Automatic annotation (TrEMBL):
Annotated source species: Gymnodraco acuticeps
Protein name, UniProt field: Uncharacterized protein LOC117553198 isoform X4
Gene name per UniProt: LOC117553198
Length: 392
């Protein structure tokens, strides 16, 4: 959510669809955005704005009985000195899993798309450093892993820059004509965005894709019957799509220590289902499987994890980052060396390995060094400054 055309506030979703617009004959202010938010049938769970603190103050004063922005006054965590200090150091992470998977059971008076009744106001990336209030350190997008690297406010600025090209002829119209034509322009913009999104989804997903009443893309998972003799026949009773149930079970925040996951010879149906789905070469190679920070991995990348092929280091780094996050959720402070670094410690470079370690290495619970040996990896974990080789 941001300003546009000097005086016309608009509401956008992350995919740059325009949800609402208000036309003013004066400069825009937080009360105009509060008008837009309060006019929605379902109040958004996360709002991004240039002046988030002012928006929260105005909106909560107008609705004192229900306080739209809560808990913590729209901050992602309680404004305690410890949380503020951790947020400034970049050590605080607040997970909001319902942004990816609907909350079950849902809250009372929740948003139908998320199942949550929590509402937060965060600062736009370009303005998060302009505030002087220390508690605003808890309104940073980077504190929420589900938003970090996914929510791109530059798209909104690009849209506004494009629409400003219409200012010259739009300002020549009367107010009523201006409103009518602007709504028409925005409608065609939304239609174009939806069609492009559906086109991209259809290139990586099989089946019929439609938009529901909330604007979400719905994939028909019914098996397609094909008579192409070159296609590989599969048993539908033994082949399952990895849907939300698999994604929820494999979320980093839901991973718990489980010996059966890595003990040889132990039958794990879920692991087998996930591995078979990812390494299935009959499926589209360009299908997006993993999105980790700024790294997007398709099936073509991930088949290097198996099928007796050499593994791409980018894939290995993404896997180790997931391990790092899982250990953080368990309260362990670890440091994982990038896969591209250990080879430089060997001949002919002979780089000093200590230069690759953080200055606070002695305070970490573990230091993980992925070392490549033909055929497999060996994880070397430091324990009281003694390196112990852990065979796979």
């Amino acid at each position: 959510m941001t300003r546009w055309l000097g005086s016309d506030p608009v509401s956008l979703c992350p995919c740059v669809l325009v949800n609402a617009v208000k036309f003013n004959i004066r400069a825009e202010s937080p009360r105009d955005y509060a008008d837009l938010l309060l006019s929605f049938l379902h109040f958004p769970n996360v709002v991004v704005y240039d002046f988030a603190r002012g928006l929260v103050s105005h909106t909560n004063l107008r609705e004192k009985e229900r306080l739209p922005f809560s808990p913590h006054g729209g901050r992602v965590a309680a404004p305690t000195p410890e949380n503020i200090a951790s947020a400034k150091k970049g050590q605080l992470k607040i997970s909001l899993p319902w942004l990816q998977f609907e909350k079950d059971p849902p809250d009372v008076n929740c948003h139908p798309a998320t199942g949550s009744a929590e509402h937060y106001a965060l600062y736009d990336t370009f303005h998060q450093s302009n505030t002087k209030d220390e508690t605003d350190a808890l309104r940073v997008i980077g504190l929420v892993p589900e938003l970090c690297g996914w929510l791109n406010s530059q798209k909104a600025e690009q849209l506004f820059s494009e629409m400003r090209k219409n200012n010259y002829f739009m300002n020549c119209f009367s107010p009523s004509s201006h409103i009518f034509l602007m709504r028409n322009v925005l409608h065609h913009h939304n239609e174009r965005v939806n069609q492009l999104a559906l086109k991209k989804l259809r290139t990586v997903c099989k089946g019929e894709i439609t938009l529901d009443a909330l604007g979400k893309a719905i994939l028909d998972t019914q098996a397609d019957v094909s008579t192409n003799e070159h296609e590989v026949a599969t048993d539908v009773s033994t082949t399952h799509h990895c849907g939300n149930h698999c994604e929820a079970l494999t979320m980093t925040s839901n991973i718990r220590p489980c010996r059966t996951s890595w003990t040889p010879g132990v039958h794990n149906p879920l692991q087998e289902q996930l591995v078979n789905y990812v390494l299935d070469e009959t499926r589209p190679m360009e299908e997006l499987i993993v999105k980790d920070c700024h790294t997007c991995l398709t099936r073509e990348n991930l088949v290097t994890l198996g099928l007796r092929r050499e593994m791409d280091s980018m894939v290995g780094n993404a896997c180790l980052r997931l391990i790092h996050e899982a250990m953080q959720y368990q309260g362990k402070d670890v440091f994982v060396v990038d896969l591209h670094v250990p080879p430089t410690w060997l001949a002919p470079n002979h780089c000093d390995a200590r230069l690759s370690l953080p200055v606070d290495s002695h305070k970490r619970d573990a230091l993980i060094f992925p070392l490549w040996i033909p055929g497999h990896f060996v994880l070397c974990v430091s324990d009281s400054l003694v390196l112990i080789a852990k065979p796979p």
